[in-house]
Amino acid sequence: RILILDFGSQYTQLIARRVREAGVYCEIYACDVADQAIVDFAPTGLILSGGPESVTFSETPRIPAAVFELGVPLLGICYGMQAMASQLGGSVEASDEKEFGYASIRARGHSRLLRDIEDHTTPEGYGMLDVWMSHGDRVSVLPDGFKIIASSESAPIAGIGDDERGWYGVQFHPEVTHTTQGARVLSRFVHDICGCAGEWTSGNIIEDSIARVREQVGNGKVLLGLSGGVDSSVVAALLHRAIGDQLTCVFVDNGLLRQDEGDQVMATFARHMGVNVIRVDAEARFLAALEGETDPERKRKIIGNLFIDVFDEQAAKLQDVDWLAQGTIYPDVIESAGAATGKAHVIKSHHNVGGLPEHMKLKLVEPLRELFKDEVRRIGLELGLPSDMIQRHPFPGPGLGVRILGEVRKEYADLLRRADAIFIDELRRHDWYDKVSQAFAVFLPVKSVGVTGDGRRYEYVIALRAVETVDFMTARWAHLPYEFLDLVSRRIINEIHGISRVVYDISGKPPATIEWE
Ligand code: XMP
């Protein structure tokens, strides 16, 4: 297993994902972690990430001493390489020119790290690599025992290596896809140099998680808030396989779910897989609590707090529950403060699980804590969950509550569910569903005039929203074909009494958010 020390690079998570994709387990620790934690992790090799600082200043992070005493292979990337060079007796100089973007570097000599890895060869026979660079400082003097393994015009020492110890440094970023051979470089390091086998596969992750859950909870009883979203669904499937009837799930139907969603969750988990699921029909309570409320943030609060109350009431009815399961995943862990030390225990802030009664004193079990989203999806499929469920677009905790503008009413929710189902159905049918990142309908409580046949209609408006995004922080509206939008619009207006107009949202994020509220 590989330990990644984080020096603050925006790409550190990517390093971890690439290593996992190479089939090798890894974790990220903060660079100032205690020596003992590094020793306890017992890494087969270490990767030192890049970072925004400069080693030419004295207050900036340094590599912990334990790293050099373990006697295992090391790979320093950018800042990681500079820190290595400077701490091992070489030097690093600040440079006025910053290099940012694509660069072509020459792989030199026959280092074990870069041997035979190249994008093209020069007429003189040198192997060249197209890489992504992002740095100001550069190594100017090699530390003892190291050779230059790569160079570029602006960085004559763009890579250093000591084949004997298996210690390497590269100025470029192998973890980003712009570095075309990056995955091969990382794979070379973790497989050939560290000697890690590619055993981190879905099957092994499941086996390993099952063994650990069994050991952790023993004969204890576990409670899980099942939402139907990917993370809680995979936790349910995994725990069910690990501990069977010791698991009880609570599924709260708040009346703000998509069409047939509650039935699908019950069909998949309760009927099909035989998981204990308590379905709580709380639609009336949620609608009553939301009555008259038009402010989006207050609506969110009402829905979140009521969820907690309903969940807690159910939990309190259960006898002898010892554990609370949560679908926390690795990015949640990394993103929370202090998490990189591997110690943080974070309660997910959104509405999955709330403030359980003090007296219950539940311990947390979080079987996905070490997994990235794509790994969670893969093991979900392997555990037999339907791919529709696993590949589903994200759905906000407050559900249709933030897609019905202003006051939430049952009549509106019912109209919206039907319009949304038509839109999603056609997206799937025309192979658009997987090409967009999130798509849904929004209910606008304004009436507009229409005509059908001889009749005049004066009914509500539905807005359709579909976006493409990687991280949901920024998004562009999906350029769905006019013919497709035409078809969806006709179906909604013809099939749903109560809707007389359909519009398509062509706002990007920013400035518009993805949801309308
Ligand atoms: P916005 O609307 O902020 O949404 O551009 C970004 C992503 O977050 C989802 N979202 C929520 N998820 N509770 C959630 O669990 C919420 O209150 C919430 N609001 C927005 C949204 O669906 C999109 O994927």
Automatic annotation (TrEMBL):
<dbReference type="InterPro" id="IPR022310">
    <property type="entry name" value="NAD/GMP_synthase"/>
</dbReference>
<dbReference type="Pfam" id="PF00117">
    <property type="entry name" value="GATase"/>
</dbReference>
<comment type="subunit">
    <text>Homodimer.</text>
</comment>
<dbReference type="InterPro" id="IPR001674">
    <property type="entry name" value="GMP_synth_C"/>
</dbReference>
<dbReference type="InterPro" id="IPR017926">
    <property type="entry name" value="GATASE"/>
</dbReference>
<keyword id="KW-0332">GMP biosynthesis</keyword>
<keyword id="KW-0067">ATP-binding</keyword>
<comment type="pathway">
    <text>Purine metabolism; GMP biosynthesis; GMP from XMP (L-Gln route): step 1/1.</text>
</comment>
<feature type="active site" description="Nucleophile">
    <location>
        <position position="78"/>
    </location>
</feature>
<dbReference type="GO" id="GO:0005829">
    <property type="term" value="C:cytosol"/>
</dbReference>
<dbReference type="InterPro" id="IPR004739">
    <property type="entry name" value="GMP_synth_GATase"/>
</dbReference>
<dbReference type="InterPro" id="IPR029062">
    <property type="entry name" value="Class_I_gatase-like"/>
</dbReference>
<dbReference type="GO" id="GO:0003921">
    <property type="term" value="F:GMP synthase activity"/>
</dbReference>
<keyword id="KW-0658">Purine biosynthesis</keyword>
<dbReference type="Pfam" id="PF02540">
    <property type="entry name" value="NAD_synthase"/>
</dbReference>
<feature type="active site">
    <location>
        <position position="173"/>
    </location>
</feature>
<dbReference type="Pfam" id="PF00958">
    <property type="entry name" value="GMP_synt_C"/>
</dbReference>
<feature type="binding site">
    <location>
        <begin position="227"/>
        <end position="233"/>
    </location>
    <ligand>
        <name>ATP</name>
    </ligand>
</feature>
<dbReference type="InterPro" id="IPR022955">
    <property type="entry name" value="GMP_synthase"/>
</dbReference>
<keyword id="KW-0315">Glutamine amidotransferase</keyword>
<dbReference type="GO" id="GO:0005524">
    <property type="term" value="F:ATP binding"/>
</dbReference>
<feature type="domain" description="GMPS ATP-PPase">
    <location>
        <begin position="200"/>
        <end position="392"/>
    </location>
</feature>
<dbReference type="InterPro" id="IPR025777">
    <property type="entry name" value="GMPS_ATP_PPase_dom"/>
</dbReference>
<keyword id="KW-0547">Nucleotide-binding</keyword>
<keyword id="KW-0436">Ligase</keyword>
<comment type="function">
    <text>Catalyzes the synthesis of GMP from XMP.</text>
</comment>
<dbReference type="InterPro" id="IPR014729">
    <property type="entry name" value="Rossmann-like_a/b/a_fold"/>
</dbReference>
<feature type="active site">
    <location>
        <position position="175"/>
    </location>
</feature>
<protein>
    <recommendedName>
        <fullName>GMP synthase [glutamine-hydrolyzing]</fullName>
        <ecNumber>6.3.5.2</ecNumber>
    </recommendedName>
</protein>
